[in-house]
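Per reviewer request, we include the raw input and output of the structure prediction for the construct analysed in the revised manuscript.
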Amino acid sequence: MGMKEDAISDFRLRRGSPGGAFLSLCTALVKYIMIPLGLLSLLGSLANGLSSGSGLDFGTVIDQLAVYLDRLMVYAIPLIILAIPLGFYPKGNYARIPFKLVYGLYLALLLLMFTDGGVLSISLDGSALGAGEISGVRVDLRIQAVIYILALISVVKAFMAFAEFGSYRKDYLDSLAEKAGDSEE
């Protein structure tokens, strides 16, 4: 069997693991949905506690930070969907390469989209500050360098799909041969 037949046969559904797909889906749901929801809840309760003791309205700050977490959860939906075939196909399988490549490249794009290129902005009006003489404050957190480094790491991880394939291909083929030997008995 040639390389082309190997690559095509690796996309067969019987070469995957439904349990691995489910585990990968659950992991992605925790990373991209449950943790941001937990942060929103934590920040909300923290804002209530801080606002009650001071004249500042931390609820407004939390609401603006919540917009970024909401955006993260929406933009992460394709990553959650891509996690299914990533978990379904084992390492060393040709079918895993395109999904891992797209996953890493989209993660880099997600980092840039969700942070507006590395600038997080919070605007407060005077009423939120508890000061009548201040009309408003705008804070821009510029983290472009960090975001670009993380995006670069994501791109490198995307292309690591090829290295992962080469490293695990022999083990994968051995496991296929072992399964074939078990089914013949």
